[in-house]
Structure of ISSpo3, transposase:
Amino acid sequence: MNKVKKYSIRDLKRDFPTDEACAAFIFDALHSRKCSCGGTYSPLKGRRQFQCSKCRYQIAPTAGTIFHKSDTPLSLWFYTLFLFSNAKSGISAKELERQLGVTYKTAWRILNLIRKALPQNTEFLTGDVEIDETHFGGKGDAGKDNKKLKAVMRNKSIIAGAVERGGRVRAKIVPNLEAKTIGKFIDNNVNPITTRLFTDKSRRYESVARGYDRFSVNHSQKEFAVGDIYINTMEAFWSHLKRSIKGTHKVVSKKYLQSYVDGFVWHYNNRHSDSERFSALLGALLPASK
Ligand SMILES: [Zn+2]
């Protein structure tokens, strides 16, 4: 669990040395080399096409994937996946533009397609689960005596989060902090039977987490952890998320925030091995591969 199996640029160059190697990998992830006619598929030189030796049927290996309809060479795509997979704090479109020598628009599009291919799953979290919410983004200053605090808070997004200690995290943008909203988030994401739920002392949990075995820590009384009653794991995720987005991406619009959050959640949930994370990324982008 603690030993991180690395995946370096050398590994990438060994596994995916050329555009042809990338195309072959994609083809094999999604199709069989054996055609139903008895022939065998092989790549057509200089084209992103595979053809059957007997019936001449052609298959574009990238059809239906995020690599399709892109002029960016597959080896650069795979290099981008490598960068994305290894970048714990994310990689910005600006940085990718520099590294690939493509336009900002192309770099942004590639990263957006990758993030969109990594939606959070819906399996229940279980075991010891910490719940917390955070405010994110928005502009402006609350001003003197917090006069503009309401307006500033309105511009922010609210993200609800749940994390298994030592396990997976889930984080979703929610419309508000009402008990009903948070209750729904918990019901949708946390197993009510097999979970010990850890929260802060906020009153909003009183009614919504009723069926759960709940323990709470009182932040307002400067009580941050009592024994194993704490929500530090969730708070650590929030601070990593905020530092990364601020440091790497600078500003993220509300419209795309969830997909950025999805990217960081995916990274967290695949944090134990660099090489497995890279395989998992390829698997997520080529869903037929098992
Ligand atoms: Zn055939």
The chain has a mean pLDDT of 90. Strands lie at 41-43, 50-52, 58-59, 125-136, 157-164, 169-174, 190-200, 213-217.
